[in-house]
Design brief:
heterodimer; A: 600 residues; mainly beta; Methanol Dehydrogenase, Chain A; 5-stranded antiparallel sheet; 5-stranded mixed sheet; 41 strands; 5% helix; 35% strand; B: 183 residues; mainly alpha; Cytochrome Bc1 Complex, Chain D, domain 2; two-stranded antiparallel sheet; 8 helices; 4% strand; globular
Amino acid sequence: MARLKPASGYVLAVAGAISLWGADATANDELLKLQDDPKQWVMPLGDYSSTRYSELNQITKDNVKDLQVAWTFSTGVLRGHEGGPLVIGNMMYVHAPFPNTVFALDLSKDGQIVWKYEPQQDPNVIPVMCCDTVNRGVAYGDGKIFLHQADTKLVALDAKTGKEVWSVADGDPTKGETGTSAPLVVKDKVLIGNSGGEFGVLGHVTAYNMKDGSIAWRANSAGPDKDMLIDPEKTTSLGKPVGKDSSLKTWEGDQWKIGGGTTWGWMSYDPELNLVYYGSGNPSTWNPVQRPGDNKYSMTILARDADTGMAKWVYQMTPHHEWDYDGVNEMILVDQQIGGQDRKLLVHFDRNGFGYTLDRDTGELLVAEKYDPAVNWANKIDIKTGLPDRVKKYSTEANGQDVNSQGICPAALGSKDQQPAAFSPKTGLFYVPTNHVCMDYEPFKVAYTAGQPYVGATLSMYPPEGEDHLGNFIAWDATTGKIKWSLPEPFSVWSGALATAGDVVFYGTLEGYLKAVDAETGKELYKFKTPSGIIGNVNTYELDGKQYIAVLSGVGGWAGIGMAAGLTEDTAGLGAVGAYKALSQYTALGGTMTVFTLPE
Amino acid sequence: MGGIAVHSIRFLALETETVPGTLMLSDWRCLIAIAAIFGASGGASHAQEAAGAEEEKPYHIAEDGTVDWPTFSGFRRYNSVCHTCHGPDGAGSSFGPALVDSLKRLSYEQFTDIVVNGKAEVNTATQKKMPAFGLDPNVMCYLDDIYAYLKARSDGVVGRGRPAKHADKPPEAAEAEAACMGQ
């Protein structure tokens, strides 16, 4: 267990803290009930299953064309705005990137600011965030709002007053460890993952006791079994026990200690199985030659017991990273039929371009298919072994150091990054915001210095050969692994989707459009250009009998790094007309929330 | 580049001041090696090549577009470390300034000063913070290369993306690199 500094005078119970049964039942029941009320939006991905689906149906595919802006709100922060607001009762909680301001707005009083919280953070945190100073949102539980700050601090705020109840430092930003992910409240605990894979940070997920911020458990992404909370005999991978030292065996020497596998994405929870699900990121460095082995458990889906943190099953999607395909994207938990049988599924759209469908109880792999036809680094995934069938031409390991491997699809951005997909039980389809970008990748030797970038590769990105758009918004059938429809977008779709019972699906674009499309056909029904590019997630709620749609604008994030300047011209130059147009020609910075509704 | 020796000395002085007690052996080795590189390749050779030209350039681009090794090396290192804020090819991002423009204003001395020591502009309107790379061998061992590349980009003689052709790595560069990186 690493250093944990009590930051507000609370004494921390050390590892294996006493379980608080009283709070346990209450908080769990409260959130389980709240997530079923479509009038509220109580966790960043809508519900524990991360479906981003709402039962609200006042806005329909027939009337969405009449949508109007009801009100807007400026966060006062310029940089990339990921995530989205929570709505609990008549209160809305809006967050911002660094300095991580949080606003509590009273929706019943025209959005009056009830409180504002702005932490004091060392600005030296700013440059150790790899891809802009984003934050993916706050969480709610037991009358508190939980904020995971850039400097890794987890803060509990009184939801009514904004007063700090407790705070705890999760890591050390001087070593490049930062916080960008949204917390997940499960029972009496708050779970967070860490960021810093480009700085040689070792990944972990930590559960803090909601009552006082003391640590309940921490599970590392690599290293000895006991620190990863892996049981060599009980933890399985594709049905088989992982065995002793299953991670240590896959690293050279002590490299795992600066090995990455950070956990900066989303977490989901199945209350019946009592399992939490999340993915781990890239192992450090980006130079595969310098980092022999499978590097377990980077690029892995993990299922852990919510109470103890013990891993039930793991599945490494991309052993031995050669392209930066982090496995942190959201895990969507749905119950669907496969081959005529009811299955408890976990659906995951990985950076590596494959859409995975697994049995979320056992970790059995059921479907793994490309969700962007451009994907070429692997031909397919072997369902039995779970291993990708790699194409040697695109292997930066096989081609070696100081060699430029060309035409690899997807680019390091992945066919999709963290921007969460949505699922509609009405159509049985997943709505997935995607990137359509390829790359050249040249790895080279790099030295590790604590707190300094540890990358070791140079990349050029461009659209797939002969194509002129950088993104698609797709509908996906996870039971068969097939694309139902695909809408081309000029830029990567970097906004989280929302599906609703009104048969409308919403998403945002990098130019700043909020778009509404028909859930069945993908036909565009409405669009409105918000003040800045959208990398936030679309949410919905109901107040006084009216349905609202809310989204944060504020271009930035990783997309803002590459696309603001325009991507590099396709080296082949085959008809990629206008593909290297720059995002900066379409939108400018500025954090604003825009809320839409139907006219009276 | 007359002021090279002075720069090297200043790096050493600054590092001892700013990071008390944290320097490790490898860091010292790196800094000493930097001094050596500055003395040898980074300054002298280019200065000599450029002698007689109107203005000395830190890069050399052949008529067929082949870029010299330092410029190519700078391309690789820039697009590994610096681009995460300053955008691909020095073209800027949604929050980091485009160095293609900055290098039209900044002198070599100002450039190295900012890279080594960092720069802050944090107030109510903006939160810009450039870290200090003075202790990062991945940057310091290639500081002149990165400067050469960005200057070539800024002067418009090297375009976006990877230079199509580049000179091989000369043995001196390989030696200096090995010494500086401690490999």
